[in-house]
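Input sequence (527 aa), recorded before submission:
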Amino acid sequence: MSKKEVKLAELSLLMEALCEESLSLSEQERLEEIVLSDPDAMQFYLNYSHLHGTLHWDQAQGAEELIPEATPVSEVELPAVSPPASARRRQFVTSGLTAACALGLIVFVWTAWVREPQQTAVVENPTGQKNPVATEKAVDAQLAARNSPQRSIQIEASQHPMLQAQQNNRLKSTGTQPLVAMKPERLPPVEALPASASDEAVVTFINHRIQDGWKAANIEPSPFATDEEWVRRVYLDVIGRIPTTTEAEQFLKSNQSDKHQRLIQKLTANPSYVTNWSTIWTRLLIGRTTTRDINRRALQDFLVQSFADNRPWNDIVFDLVSAEGDADTNGATNFLLAHLNNEAVPATAITTRLFLGTQIQCTQCHNHPFNDATQSQFWEINSFFKQTKVVRKKIQARDGEKQSSQLALVSLSKGGTTFYETRQGLMQPAYPKYSGVKVSDAPDVNRRQELAKLMTSGNDQQLARAMVNRMWAHFFGYGFTRPIDDMGYHNSPTHPELLNELANQFVDSGYDIRQLIEWICLSDAYR
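Predicted structure, token format:
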């Protein structure tokens, strides 16, 4: 990025901190310096403030300051007033009638509930008898019918027009089911793409897989969006804002056949792309607020630089998982500083959920009730974090300034076994192990670095699958699985071949995030 683009990206982060009321004194001075030194920065500041103010009013922030407090009224003891005798009599009569009606209603409901529907039994009427006598066979049949678990009348949908309409519209519903969702086994088999396939081949593969899903589910897809609709959509999804009038007109007036691809490439090279995605991932990694004394700005600066350089996604994850040092110097450390405690349970859960798309927190205390995940697997991954300790380092104070401190991640040279307690009260050992690969528990082995290597390299592509699933959900509002961070055998993807192929191509591209965005945004489903 140019110096001007870097300055605007920094200004955007400062403005966000200002709106979040987390701007420090030094950052306020830096914000003032940037705004007053550059007319473009001043215009950006005004536009950002106007937009935030327009959105902020709807939340009724500060309304309590605008509404004056009510003047307290002194308490006055009021004399007790008894109703007249006639009023008491009317109240008694009304209460009595109400109680009688309620009692009658209870009796009626009780008798209706306990009364069994009478069924007509087959009877015989011997000659000479006035009253017919039910046969033993008829009584048995009546008792069997009475004890049958299914006593409701069954109506075929084809015999009832309303049921038939409901059945036909169920697939078209946009409620809990996505338009592209279906059982994976209903899709026809398809040949995989060659390694490092062309962009056109990948987009075509996406289109064919989605179209096969529509046909299998008997779904009529929506018409293509107009260029006016599409340009607004892609601006919002990629850089987090709508296009300006000039930007929209430039795209709409273009007659180039590849103008959609050109625009996507232009947007992913825009400083707003960096700001948008660094903000998204900062909130995913540490949330909007945290009680920990971490450096949020340093973490976002790390992400800003990573997205600006288009670093491979596996390299970014490697740095976040294996980071060492203090919160200010190495921004990547703030991810684990926000979640690491003595047992490293939160760090274990969020690392697998964010980067691998799997939720293993349930197996902390017991085996998973609905899949094959075991308690031992949780603690095997947890043992990778047991060498790491959060410490507080003192910062050398300048003359006249108060001494301060900051958090830091330190890896200790210690090995050994991790023990956990089963629900039966037994203590069991766990050793560092990921995806079937065991790691030495010797003290000279940095376990977090080994975990980062296993997650981001080799034949295991769960990191790629999780990122593809998350990005798909970002652009379509619905991932291949729901939720997107609970992947596994218990939660089959709607389009497994498409998910796997996109993950393969993502790996072959060098974990290129911009390339993945381009494939998705050029697909027919997105348009």
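Checked by second reader. The mean pLDDT is 79.
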